[in-house]
Write a structure and sequence with these properties.
Length: 253
């Protein structure tokens, strides 16, 4: 798995070289700018709503009054950290929902970009969109996005419950991050699987056997978000090109 994660990391560097060589910047900037605008608006409302949810829950349970009665700085610190962990897990969950919405909207562009990438690697020319293929890509993207969002919700709820436990709950953002990375990388890899005529079930089985590629792709994607604006613009399209490159030498037949 570690080897595949390294391959996924290296694929981003190769993706940058590939984009520069073939002048694919318009396919990077257009979806990237849209993603950045949605990301900024979405995360603002997500963070505000998570604060509201945690504050409401604290009042209902009566944690604030209990801590005030205990007058223990250690307990206050423990529950403060717990509240932060809960907020972070909620933000990851909100972001995952936003991510699936964006993947559904952008699936035609990402499918085209993945296909164009492989065609250029093979030295072939790829034509413009075909409506029938476009419609199939959208249907498959929506089905898999709904399937992945369902499973990720199950995992996130379990992680959220764990986050309420002191000390143990502090590791939940890390677990949530890996889950998020896997499912985003899964979506990027599936474009290549679909192009090679793998059914959704076959694609799920194949990617499950190559979890490192999915996790590594998602890790770099989320890592790029630490570079404000530029990283947000570049991350989505770089991810799909890097995923295509990382799967190019895999046996997808």
């Amino acid at each position: 798995m570690l080897k595949e994660i390294i391959i996924a990391f290296q694929s981003y560097y190769k993706a940058h070289q590939f984009i520069s060589k073939h002048r694919l910047w318009k396919w990077i900037l257009i979806p990237g700018i849209l993603y950045t605008l949605l990301f900024c608006v979405g995360m603002y409302f997500f963070w505000e709503s998570s604060n509201t949810a945690v504050s409401w829950l604290s009042r209902v349970i009566g944690i604030d009054k209990w801590l005030h009665h205990q007058q223990s700085s250690f307990l206050s610190f423990i529950f403060l950290m717990g509240g932060i962990m809960v907020r972070l897990v909620l933000v990851f969950f909100y972001f995952s929902l936003f991510k699936y919405l964006f993947l559904i909207i952008g699936s035609p562009v990402f499918a085209y970009l993945s296909e164009q990438t492989e065609a250029l690697i093979n030295g072939k020319e790829y034509n413009t969109f075909q409506f029938r293929q476009l419609w199939r890509d959208m249907q498959r993207g929506i089905r898999l996005a709904l399937r992945n969002s369902l499973w990720q919700t199950v995992y996130t709820v379990s992680i959220l419950i764990l986050s309420f436990f002191p000390l143990v709950g502090w590791i939940t953002p890390v677990i949530s991050t890996f889950v998020e990375c896997y499912y985003y990388g899964f979506s990027m890899l599936d474009y290549s699987c679909e192009r090679h005529k793998l059914s959704p079930a076959a694609s799920i089985a194949f990617i499950s056997q190559h979890k490192g590629l999915a996790v590594g792709n998602g890790m770099v994607f989320y890592g790029m978000h630490f570079i404000p604006i530029l990283g947000w613009v570049l991350a989505p399209s770089y991810a799909v090109i890097a995923a295509t490159i990382s799967l190019y030498h895999q046996n997808l037949e």
